[in-house]
Amino acid sequence: MIKPRTPPGVLELLPRDQIAFQRVLDVIRRTYERFGFLPVETPVFELTEVLLTKSGGETERQVYFAQSTGALEKKEPGLPELALRFDLTVPLARYVAEHEHELAFPFRRYQMQRVYRGERQQRGRFREFYQCDIDVIGKDALSVRHDAEMPAVIHAIFSELGIGKFTIQMNNRKLMRGFFERLGVADGALQMAVLREVDKLDKRGADYVRDTLTGEGFGLSAEAVAQILAFVSVRSNGHADALAKLEALGGGNATLEQGVAELREVLELVRALGVPEADYALNFSIARGLDYYTGTVYETTLDDHPQIGSICSGGRYDNLASHYTRSHLPGVGISIGVTRLFWQLREAGLISSAESSVECLVALMDEAGLPAALALGNRLRAGGINTEVQLEPKKLAKQFQYADRAGIRFVLLQGEDERARATVAVKDLRRNEQFELPEGEVVAALKVELAQQRALAGR
Asked: Strands, E, within 375-417: which ranges?
């Protein structure tokens, strides 16, 4: 007999944890739609030649290929025809390029689907996980005003999830490029190499980074390195302080000045969109990949749980689909890796198992009561109450035990005596109370109780 085992690198949940996970997805989907984004789904696999449009990236070295048994038997040379998507960005690029003449621009899409990566097996890393993305894609041009919308969406989602104080940290790639140019570090490859070393600040410390950047292979002056380390340490505290930090950068070249102007406009619009100034800040250390992002970049962190890292990130890019179309398609977007986020929040005690999505159980006390039990279940469902009906009579103690273990709050009893009086006995397992109601009042009374429960739970 084969031992049942979950494959490594997947998150498989028991029902009440799955309900909690689904509710996180519901909040994200509802918020995306509230901000006017349209749903898109793409196949779990793409043509390999479409998916692997460039080589050498770490993500692309983690691709899973999809092959039929027939293709395996043929053993044809070359890579398999199909590969599982490793993110939602490449499929979006293909989708927009393919349907370009059918879409209205700016194209506002959201996508919430699983992606697959051959991650090295370790705690908290997943090979199959949900990403929840939004992007605004322009044709030929896209106003920087759209960049300001992303923090507003992020704020709405994490406020509703109620997982604690968070900060949306922002930067602009042009600031960093312009600052480096002002120091004489103008080569793009060298800028990327410097950023990789700067990213090691938290793990290796300032002395290591300073020695590396002034040493062989970089050869930057001690003064330049000191200015770089001072630059990436900049954080703001409040809206006015953020504007002052930008003003203090000064100018010196067009790239830096454009970055300052864009970030200033984004900050003003973020405030106009109603995001409290305590919930966003400048952070000049955020890079988000020099070779992809070109303007505004975002990372969101939980103030009391910095060890979790970024819970939502993204930014502005120049041309989404350059591999698939000659059209210029700039965009801006954010992504929430919700599987890893849910796992981390659960580990930190910020999310717990949910109540059952089943709200009532209609017990069956005897065979004669089945028609009445089915009718009562239909009445409850018609009233908008999620209801399970027991279809086989069992001892009441076992039915109460079943409801309790399944997380069902109300058990409804209608024995011979209750049927004769057209009443229903209601057992509230949460309060350990039992009361009786006329048949005609059951739905209304339970809807009131359930509405109060949802209000207390904040949903």
From this structure: 387-389, 410-413
> What is 9-163+306-354's CATH superfamily?
Bira Bifunctional Protein; Domain 2 (3.30.930.10)
Angle (CA) 203-205-211 rounded to 5° is 125
Q: How many Cβ atoms from other residues are within 10 Å of residue 265's Cβ?
A: 16
Question: Does an H or E element contain 169, and which?
Answer: strand 166-172
- Strand pairing category for 45-47 and 423-428: unpaired
C-alpha span between 403 and 198 (Å, rounded): 55
Give the tens place of pLDDT for each residue, 309-365: 899 999 999 988 988 999 999 999 999 999 999 999 999 899 888 888 999 999 998
* Options 3.40.50.800, 3.60.21.10, 3.10.180.10, 3.40.30.10; CATH of 360-457: 3.40.50.800
Fold identical between 9-163+306-354 and 165-303? yes
pTM over 0.85: yes
Mean pLDDT, the chain, rounded, equals: 91
**Cα–Cα distance between 372 and 358 in angstroms, integer?**
20
| Residues 54-83, mean pLDDT to the nearest whole number | 77
Asked if 140 and 328 count as a contact pair (C-beta separation under 8 A), the reply is yes
Task: State the average pLDDT over residues 386-405.
Answer: 95
CA distance 325 to 433: 66
Task: Say which CATH class 165-303 falls into.
Answer: alpha beta
In eight-state DSSP terms, residue 215 is S
Between CA 194 and CA 202 the distance in angstroms is 15
Q: Is 355 exposed, middle or buried (0-12, 13-18, 19+ CB in 10 A)?
A: middle
